[in-house]
Amino acid sequence: MCYDAKRERIVVFGGWNGANRFSGATLEWTGEALVRATTTGPSARDGHAQAPGALAEAGTLQQVARMAEVTERAVLEGAGIRFFRVDYGGGLHQRRHSHDYTSVSLVLSGGVAETVGRRIAEAGTLTVLVKPAGVEHACTFANRGVRLLSLQIDAALLSSLETRRATLDQWRVVSNPRAAAGLLRLFDSAASGEFVGGERDAVVELLAELAEPGTGGNLRDVPRWLHDAEACIRESFVRPTTRQLAQRAGVHPVHFARAFRRHFGHSPTGYAAWLRLRRASEMLVRNVAARRGAIALDAGFTDQSHMWREFRHALSITPGALAALGRPIEA
Description:
By secondary structure, the protein is of the alpha+beta class. It has helices at 55-58, 60-68, 155-159, 177-192, 199-210, 224-235, 242-249, 253-264, 268-286, 292-299, 304-315, 319-325; strands at residues 2-4, 9-12, 27-29, 34-36, 70-78, 81-88, 93-97, 102-109, 112-116, 119-123, 128-131, 137-141, 146-153, 172-174. The strands form 3 sheets. It has a 6-stranded antiparallel β-sheet with strand order 5-6-13-8-11-14. A 4-stranded antiparallel β-sheet has the order 1-2-3-4, covered by helices on one side. It has a 4-stranded antiparallel β-sheet with strand order 7-12-9-10, with helices on one face.
């Protein structure tokens, strides 16, 4: 297995002979599947072709190739704390495992489903994943791949926080702007070189943001009528009013608003604004070359200035700074 820089693909069991003649045994990972190469192009690798055998049909090679598509790069390493950028290949599944550190990760694009015991939680763009050290978990990453920021905290630093550390004692998913903003600020400071020392203060500030209520990613107990209302907000370009949503659900507007906030961590209006931010963030990270004005309109903002104001207000970061944090890791 090797990475073919010319094609920007992982090549498994194969190559090309010195005469650039197809060996008949080259498989390339496209991001979704292993396919047999049919055209020339990579540099010669004479003598490196191997027959993949029955493993290809069994799907083993697909998993191997996906596992190879995990790239991480340290942004900053301090006393008891580390900042990492991590890219996961599309469709990757990681079996149950654990870490010897506590992690707080922010999904910049894509999504991941994590399983702990019999519980499954899904995390999408701008969602925060909190994992205490030693928690066994399995992960399945979205087919388009996942990009995230990961803050790793050693036990020694965490134990020194005493009363505030309980916020990181439970595995959970947090979806609210303050939690996302807290991690984005930390990574932006680390990436720009402004983060010098102050590890303890940084973690304490983050704990305050994570204490803010928000949806926990496991929404199985949400009533059907509330699920339908959330889907209506998510799928409608022009959001219905709270009264219209309550009338459609057959409940009083006050009861509707309270139930919606209890289950989704936002008012209906705030939830619509949060979805706009998440849509825009996904597009900014996925396509850094796209015009910001087009992204703003596609995400549901009135214009680019509206998007800029909402990013600064909710996330304390500009769209451009978020796109910079989400640039692909170079091989």
